[in-house]
Amino acid sequence: MRRRELMAAGAAVIADWRLRIADSSPPNPKSTIRNPQSAQEPSLGPEVFQRRLERARAELQARRLDLLIATPGTNYEYLTGYNPGRSERLIALLLPVAGAPAVVCPAFEVERIKRHSAITELHGWDEQDDPHTLVRDTVRRLRSRSGSGTIALESSTAYQTFLRLGRALPGWKFVDAAPLTERLRVIKSPEEVALLRRAIAITQDAMAATFAQLAVGTSEVQVAQALSREMEQRGAPGGGLVQFGPSSALPHGGPAGPVLAREAVVLIDCGCRVGGYTSDITRTIWFGDHPSDEFRNVFNLVHDAQTAAMELGRPGTPCEEMDRAARKVITAAGSGPFFTHRLGHGLGMDGHEPEYLVEGNKTRLEPGMVFTIEPGIYQLGKFGVRIEDDCLMTESGVEVLSQRASKL
């Protein structure tokens, strides 16, 4: 009986949250999504990956680089449409500035990778072979047997792999491929934005359903599990942080807080993946009859800071100015020391990726960039409030892809 009474006590707040947050649009019937339940199946057509490979070659040429080598990860997946995963067995994409790309992989993996990847030329190595020797031979063939040049090596490649490639290719210079890969990925195509929109819609719907299940005595872990189930039921793997009361004052707090009590703050920071693209949304609510005046004031201040950044954003706005605009609002209210992290980060295949909205980043926003705007105020021992929305830079300004929360 007590559980039902306490559920009713929070019903008004949760119902209002659902009206404000969960009113997301249905899936676009023209979406390029093929199978949102599979993180591995390519969800974009082969022509998309052909364009990406051509752009990568153009970047190689512009930077006077001869070859890109990428091992499995999001950059590899971005160019090939498939991430076969990393292990002690070498898998590598070799993309020359001119000519067809090739993949070097274990011989027993050739068929699997061929079925899922946009790359059609694969070279398999047997278990008793040194795969780095096969890389050397493939590089020579792709470069018309040239024995030297400059290779852009994908940034997350394992250090041991880098050392062994260096020994196999002694005449070659290796440089960090990050400037190249970041430039390729920072501007999202319409197909990518469509996948992000779908991930955002699923996230908001799952969050609303999760908030509606809150009950006194529930643990943060139990709510996090419910959240993941709600996302899975909607066809997308995902999850996130769930924090109650004082735990919400830790920006990245783990599931170790107290069980849920009446008249408490609940913060959920979460996202899901659709076709390889990730959403990231945070909502903070009051679970109980009436929000305290302090919570209401802090929530509205964070909301105002978010609005200030959204209204400032235009093509050409430096990333650091976005952070400054939000921070100015919070600082003017005397809460500057409690806003302890950057304003936001880029969003795409990785949950956090360039560009970062942070002091010192003078990179100018461009149409097609997708990023979060997530100011927060964190008062240790009391509570924290973060409001995070996913945004697209358009020719005319910031488009908020998620449904914003209303002020209290």
Task: Describe this protein's structure.
With 408 residues, this protein is an alpha+beta fold. The protein is 37% helix and 20% strand. It has twelve helices and 17 strands. Strands 4-3-2-1-5-6 form a six-stranded mixed sheet, sandwiched between helices. Helix 9 packs across helix 10 (220-233) and helix 11 packs antiparallel against helix 12 (319-332). The radius of gyration is 24 Å and the shape is elongated. It starts with a helix and ends in an 8-residue tail after the last strand. Mean pLDDT is 89; it is low at 1-42.
Instruction: Spell the H/E element sequence.
Output: HHHEHEEHEHEHEHHHEEEEHHEEEEEEE
Shape by Cα distribution = elongated
Spatial strand arrangement across the major sheet: 4-3-2-1-5-6
Query: How is the biggest beta sheet arranged?
Result: 6 strands, mixed
* Relative strand content: 15-25%
Poorly predicted runs of 5 or more residues: 1-42
Please give the alpha-carbon distance between the first and last residues: 30 Å
Tell me the radius of gyration: 24 Å
Residue share in helix = 25-40%
Overall structural class, as computed from helix and strand content, comes to alpha+beta
Q: How many helix segments?
A: 12
Number of strands: 17
Whole-number mean pLDDT: 89
